[in-house]
Write a structure and sequence with these properties.
alpha/beta, 2 domains, 5-stranded parallel sheet, 5 helices, 5 strands, 48% helix, 17% strand, elongated
């Protein structure tokens, strides 16, 4: 108390259509993970329709993607770091996630993410994995700069 002067945005996450509908009905946006650019665009449309049905014709629509990514000097090194981190975290083979997880140089990762930008994504929550902490931070910053040009 007192409440903040500006409203705090609530972003609803989840992969299912039910989660996307909740985002449209109740939230200020949707946070996707492990989705294709086509699915991202379709989810944004579902959220907008649900918002309109709920009497919210102009929702904030802060739709975003959470993306695990590997950043290194080569695709092989980036994949190795990313696969190891994800397999440890999820206790599942990396191949289950690989198609949704870019890796390589910052250019490679930005190229992978560009179709999401084209589909309407304006925010990415990157989970960068690199051989070195400083390289992860620098790589994420480079991806940001590259995407700002698209």
């Amino acid at each position: 108390m007192p409440p903040p002067a500006a409203p705090i945005p609530v972003i609803v996450g989840g992969r299912s259509d039910a989660a996307v509908r909740r985002a449209g009905r109740l939230g200020d946006g949707w946070l996707g993970i492990w989705n294709s650019p086509r699915r991202f665009a379709a989810a944004a449309e579902i959220a907008a329709k649900e918002a309109a049905s709920a009497g919210r014709p102009d929702p904030a629509a802060r739709h975003a993607m959470q993306v695990w990514c590997g950043l290194a000097d080569s695709k092989e090194a980036a994949r190795g770091c990313l696969a190891s981190a994800m397999e440890t975290f999820y206790q599942l083979p990396f191949e289950r996630f690989e198609r949704y997880c870019p890796y390589g140089t910052a250019d490679d990762v930005a190229e992978f993410l560009a179709p999401y930008v084209d589909a309407g994504c304006r925010e990415f929550n990157l989970i960068p994995q690199s051989p070195d902490h400083d390289q992860a931070i620098a790589g994420a910053a480079a991806v940001r700069r590259l995407l700002a040009r698209t």
